[in-house]
Amino acid sequence: MKKEDKSTLIKELEATIGAYPHFYLTDIGGLDAAETSEFRRLCYNKEIKLLVVKNTLLKKALENSDVDYSQLYDSLKGETSLMLSATGNLPAKVIKDYSKKNKKKKPVLKAAYVEESFYIGANTLEELISIKSKNELLGEVIGMLLSPVNDVMSALQSGANTIHGVLDTLSERE
Fold it and tell me: What CATH code would you report for 3-131?
């Protein structure tokens, strides 16, 4: 491959990585063509971009980034696929579900950059699955903030019903 082609690919990788807030490094080596196609289709349906990349080109793209990705460099060995997503925990769920039903137990998580944190090794998969997205956390906070308001409103409504009942009873006595 010519040097110009490599630099073009590196720049494209930089732009692609910069467009997504979360990415996973996985090993899908050993999957046959049908399994790879099925996994790609699953990723596409979940809005996860899947790229098979050369480790050296990916390392250069990561080095050129504003973020220090040096913790991920040791994971760039063997076959590497890049899974990019707007939702932090979605690729982890896809990896777990697909590897559970696959005889070869692939794909395997090598490392991940999620919510501005690094996760190294396949043993961090469960931790990644349990991470809540920004929208999920916002929903929980809003729910907690609305809970006292809802309690007050229901107390006022039940109080109104009680007062209405008392007034009805008093009006019947006369």
Answer: 3.30.70.1730
